[in-house]
């Protein structure tokens, strides 16, 4: 049985996500996958040696879903894809100049909207929230 606290946390999590998405979409209509696409661009930018397999692993999605995600980013001109010269099964990804610009623009927009939501918190609250998210993220990757 799930505790009331966990149920409340799940409800609040989805509510916050929906609110953030609505705030961003209110000014700039975006498709439902754009947060994942934005995070993918950031990941490829931060980790230049990331592969398709790495994307699937990092986001805990199937390789076919990672392929669809990357296909959309390649088609839009935000990423390029290159097969490894020694093993064609390995696909290397690179962020394009356009992808870097799109990432920066959309990341600024998202950060601005999240900052509006966080305005009710003081610095101590934000530090505590960051600590909780760090623990949860670490636990998620170690599970």
- Give the CATH topology: Arc Repressor Mutant, subunit A
Which word captures the global form? globular
Any idea how many domains? Answer: 1
The CATH architecture: Orthogonal Bundle
Average pLDDT, rounded to a whole number, is 86
Give the helix tally: 6
Percent helix range: 55-70%
What does this entry look like structurally?
This protein is mostly helical and 143 residues long. The chain has a single domain, classed as Winged helix-like DNA-binding domain superfamily/Winged helix DNA-binding domain (Arc Repressor Mutant, subunit A, Orthogonal Bundle), CATH 1.10.10. Helix content is 70%, strand content 7%. It has six helices and two strands. A two-stranded antiparallel sheet has the order 1-2. The chain is globular, with a radius of gyration of 17 Å. The two termini are 21 Å apart. The mean pLDDT is 86.
Would you kindly provide a brief summary of this structure?
The mean pLDDT is 86. By secondary structure, the chain is mostly helical. The protein has helices at residues 4-27, 34-46, 52-59, 63-75, 97-118, 123-142; strands spanning 79-83, 91-95.
Secondary structure layout:
Layout: H1 4-27, H2 34-46, H3 52-59, H4 63-75, E1 79-83, E2 91-95, H5 97-118, H6 123-142
Antiparallel strand pairs: 1-2
